[in-house]
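Q: Could you fold this chain for me?
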Amino acid sequence: MPSEIYVDKIMDQTGANSLFEQSGSNWIAGTGVPSGMIVTSKIVEYSTRTAVGGSSATDAEFCNFGNYNKLFANTDLFIQVLLFTFASTDQWTGNLGIKYGGGSTYWTQSYTFNDIDKGQQLTMYAKINGHTTTGSQAISLRYGTADSGTTRPCQIINPTSSDDARLNNSNTSVAIVHEVQT
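A: Sure. Below is the predicted structure, expressed as structure tokens.
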């Protein structure tokens, strides 16, 4: 028969340093958790075939990737996105970013016109720091240009055999999220 244990604080072996403490309905990392330690990780999958429209906005969402449940207020998020895309013949030049919850967009890189009408992978990295809101929040992929020129990073996310007969119909992009003690 399984047992349950209810605690509001987890201490190290000396009893001098708290590792985790409950603060209201949230858990926070205590003083005994070393800086740089990964406290949790998750892979968020996005498998929907999505058409991406062109935009002249300076900050536009092109994919609501899914949610990540941030556990601690005093941690940073390291997010790596591996995005399978297709048909980039009209992408021109712009910026890619990641937005977590209601925070600001973290601009990760730029993209430029490459005239490739094939599948390609976009890789994005972001360190989200100073975001203290906990709970389940959206990971939003963003694009935009500083000069309001119409652009897009790709035409299709997660292409299928309807885009290219050589592809299967189960392509999935992923976001790898590490929550790290600061």
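A (continued): The chain has a mean pLDDT of 84.
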